[in-house]
Amino acid sequence: xxxxxxxxxxxxxxxxxxxxxxxxxxxxxxxxxxxxxxxxxxxxxxxxxxxxxxxxxxxxxxxxxxxxxxxxxxxxxxxxxxxxxxxxxxxxxxxxxxxxxxxxxxxxxxxxxxxxxxxxxxxxxxxxxxxxxxxxxxxxxxxxxxxxxxxxxxxxxxxxxxxxxxxxxxxxxxxxxxxxxxxxxxxxxxxxxxxxxxxxxxxxxxxxxxxxxxxxxxxxxxxxxxxxxxxxxxxxxxxxxxxxxxxxxxxxxxxxxxxxxxxxxxxxxxxxxxxxxxxxxxxxxxxxxxxxxxxxxxxxxxxxxxxxxxxxxxxxxxxxxxxxxxxxxxxxxxxxxxxxxxxxxxxxxxxxxxxxxxxxxxxxxxxxxxxxxxxxxxxxxxxxxxxxxxxxxxxxxxxxxxxxxxxxxxxxxxxxxxxxxxxxxxxxxxxxxxxxxxxxxxxxxxxxxxxxxxxxxxxxxxxxxxxxxxxxxxxxxxxxxxxxxxxxxxxxxxxxxxxxxxxxxxxxxxxxxxxxxxxxxxxxxxxxxxxxxxxxxxxxxxxxxxxxxxxxxxxxxxxxxxxxxxxxxxxxxxxxxxxxxxxxxxxxxxxxxxxxxxxxxxxxxxxxxxxxxxxxxxxxxxxxxxxxxxxxxxxxxxxxxxxxxxxxxxxxxxxxxxxxxxxxxxxxxxxxxxxxxxxxxxxx
Length: 684
Ligand code: SF4
Hints:
The protein has 684 residues and is of the alpha/beta class. The chain has 23 helices and 26 strands. The strands form six sheets. It has a seven-stranded mixed beta sheet with strand order 5-4-16-15-14-6-7, with helices on both faces. The protein has a six-stranded mixed β-barrel with strand order 21-25-22-24-23-26. Strands 10-9-8-12-13 form a five-stranded parallel beta sheet. Residues 7, 9-10, 12-14, 33, 37-38, 40-41, 166-168 line the site of iron/sulfur cluster.
């Protein structure tokens, strides 16, 4: 028997057909991938064994039952709230959660505990895009659809190694270019990557040089008469101030030559159908939100948005980063794209939930949340489906901060993780293939993840674990769900109840799904105001979500280049691994691609340090050290380094790169600057 479900890795959200014997195939009917899979998706069947799984609740390292563990978690959280207030507890969740899990966790924290200290690893992924969208559109809306990548005549990939990080989208673009060789592709990235090989032009932009690059483009569009004056007059505010900021910027600060700038600007200006795809190289920066708005400015100025083959396109890292956004999964959001800082929105959500209290302000964002753990403000912490002691910047500081919390719960599928080893209580979660729910991919498409394996041991789905703790805290009436379908219907019904508020997100057409209809739900792009009717694109004819219905162009300025004498450290993904390798590390063939922690370094820098190939290189931020194999390559520029983010301390004692990445964040989005560390390098 086979089951149609969705890949649990990246934000492409590919449909897969899975069998209990581990056979995995791409789903030819799924509109994200039409049967394609990448190496990670193809190897899913090799990752579903039970080795290393957490199969029972553990308290203080001793196996216990659910009743005892649930009661203990509820009591410790209730005591922390009673003694120190609701701000003294926190949840750190994950884009690996299904929408139903995410919804219940947010409802508990924001509507019942009454604080907003729930943030997720999605903060590391696309918080700058959310902030940029909201500033420009008045809503967190991805305007386009994957098909636009096939309709475009020019695709600009900014800060995105799509070939490794969103491989099936890369495959779709490669196929489109093969069919239409006149399609042009530009890759904007300080580093030459596998993605650059498909590009007609690779622009080795300076780290954080993107604002200068796109401000220069805006100035060029204005000077060359390419601004769509009619679209701007009808649908956009802020053009003049954005252009003034662009004129005040020196495009040379992008680090590119005048010739390269002229070629790129001419291409972009002269091509109507242009899609600008961007990812973590844009988002993970201390000026990530400004970078996003610099890109959006150019599309708004030309009206190249929401029509086939044109628009800005943020691709998310995780399978359900978008679903998390829909349920208010970040500390500065409320469910259903309601605004946490809008009292009418908060009141309406509270009335819908019939909740006793409500958060009144945004909570702590990821980096600040763990600083609050370090300085003693957080008395009880619950980490769900993620490994912040490895994946956050200053990973050792985060591990020390977690140790400092009086009571920590970790719910996970694995018995041993760097974070789980620090917990007082471990709760066994059901994993991919064992649990059911929905996810939303980067093009706003809601797809079902369906179970096809028995749930092992005492593991439970996250929505059930959270609901049981909520019930033990005294709120059982509001968390009496029997199934993920129950949770989803409530999520969709909230959408119906919030219709009086003008918002982009609307899935009210799914509020009446029967269990059978939910189970059979076909992939659909929101909004879904009527069952079976999704929407591919937004904004071709305006209709933005600021009160006046217009978009806003933002005056953004480029950061001045900083010379520090240290190496600039860029971090990211390998082709065949996912996050901290919890699952992909189980598939031997995925380990053969790049088997050890390594650092890419320019051959000239390697020579200067006396480093040969595969010798041990020490990176230091002055406080901590990481030790990696050197990989001399001219894919990186002089003074630049690249290292993958996957290795935990458990897999490679000194290979956890985030121990030497500092905690700088974007002041608007709170997203950590994981692409811009400063380190010293030396031979071991
Ligand atoms: Fe999974 Fe992403 Fe690969 Fe698709 S592209 S199979 S969603 S990892």
